Give the backbone structure.
Amino acid sequence: MSRSNQDQRYQGHQTPISPVGEDTTGSSLPGNDDFDGIIGVPASGNRASGNAASPIGADADSPFDTGAESDEAAIDVRGRLGIWHRFTRYCSRHSLRYFAGVICAVLCFLVLLLPSPYVIETPGPTQDVLGTSDGKQVIAITDATTHKSRGKLLLLTVNAQGVPGSPALGIQTLIAWIDPHQQVMPSEAVFPVGQSSQEYEKTSAKQMTGSQDSATTAALAFAKRHKIAGASHAKVEMHVDDIGGPSAGMMYALGIIDKLTGVDETGGKTIAGTGTIDSKGKVGKIGGIQLKMLGAKRDGATYFLAPASNCDEVVGHVPNGLRDVKVSTLEQAYRSLVAIGQGRADNLPHCTAD
């Protein structure tokens, strides 16, 4: 083939062919720059200045790197699919009965994380009815002379979880069953089925208000019978936050009487007690008395005034260092209080089992 024919054949490609043996160093071939740009090689101008192209596999970004990344992703997907395939194949080779234990364990775990139909009670905070709450006198008496006491009269509470607005999980209920300092009871024994949190709070607040009113009536009637100065004109207000229910009635009544008298009935001692009270001064049964005794001992009480109707729950559960005293009326509770303050508590009646 002639030279001229060769030139014509390659003319369409616009790529001149250097003659054999001819020095092509530094020459620039048309079209190479475009290809060099694709594979990441610097343009010919840069080569001329001495900048070498980055080799494939170096740190420079290259469109060929995406192939490796794609391969790694594909391997990862195949690995996961392989695990799933092995798992499904394993399951298909065994009957449902084979997995009964695992299924049961999973269901039990889920049940522990669900709300339980039980109420958990623990010892709650105490409050000195002769002291203050949020900067206010717990028992504020006006239009009568009041007197301070060196001791404390503690009303007792329990914390309840599982009541409307405060659900208890299954695992919490299980722990409470094991813990001797917690009590578990069916929720229907504490509040009506279907009661909302608003209704529960309203009922609890109403019980507390009723308890305070009954305590005031009973205490002022007691003070009038015993001709305590100022009892006829005294006006009583009570300020206690975040405490509900009727069980503090007896301690409210004792606090009112203590403030109206010039005698320091407590004798500087810390005395706790619990029990409902009606307007005639009868002390009634309450719930959670064992937990309340624990709260009394925890907060420094040495004596505990217990309703006679709760004695079957008191016997055998009085913490060491706490002396229980059985009372059934406000009159008995006050006389016991005076005896304790004067150091004559040895002959006061204990709770006994019937």
Observations:
- Residues 1-32, 34-64 have pLDDT under 50 and may be disordered.
- The CA atoms of residues 15 and 30 lie 7 Å apart.
- The chain has eleven helices and 14 strands.
- The first helix runs from residue 3 to 11.
